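Please fill in the sequence for the structure shown.

STRUCTURE ENCODING:
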């Protein structure tokens, strides 16, 4: 019954067997059902290799100077070719400044589908609105996770 009806699960087959007069438990039916070999689903590595052209990442890095000033560097990367799209330095990163950098880095024709970023407070509502206007989906990473690896 399990081979003839591959969409039926153990509860359905158990019900059909009860209608035919066979008194068996549903757990017994589940134990003796044919195992279906499903094709393996794609993993993260496969997903990223298939969709890498449509993914970009943005991150703010802190740059201390010799004069003990703190500068912030905005780095934008495309994952398809692992190329630096843009980077710029400022002493005061605001949401407007970051939004302008995104607009300059991705003209309308070359905007990625997804933008991965951390949950820094510098990315304000203005930044999110600019991404929506450009057709880019905003994907913040999990809290206390790092985009950059320092290996």
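FILLED IN BY: designer on duty
SEQUENCE:
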């Amino acid at each position: 019954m399990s081979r003839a009806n591959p969409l039926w699960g153990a509860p359905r087959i158990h019900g059909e067997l009860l209608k035919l007069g066979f008194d068996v438990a549903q757990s017994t039916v589940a134990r003796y059902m044919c195992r279906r070999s499903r094709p393996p689903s794609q993993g993260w590595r496969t997903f990223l290799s298939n969709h890498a052209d449509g993914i970009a990442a943005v991150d703010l890095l802190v740059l201390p100077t010799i004069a003990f000033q703190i500068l912030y560097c905005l780095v934008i990367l495309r994952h398809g070719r692992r190329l630096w799209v843009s980077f710029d330095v400022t002493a005061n990163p605001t949401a407007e400044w970051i939004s302008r950098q995104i607009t300059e880095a991705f003209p309308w024709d070359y905007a990625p589908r997804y933008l991965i970023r951390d949950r820094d407070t510098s990315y304000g509502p203005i930044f999110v609105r600019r991404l929506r206007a450009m057709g880019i989906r905003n994907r913040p990473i999990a809290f206390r996770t790092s985009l950059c690896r320092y290996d």
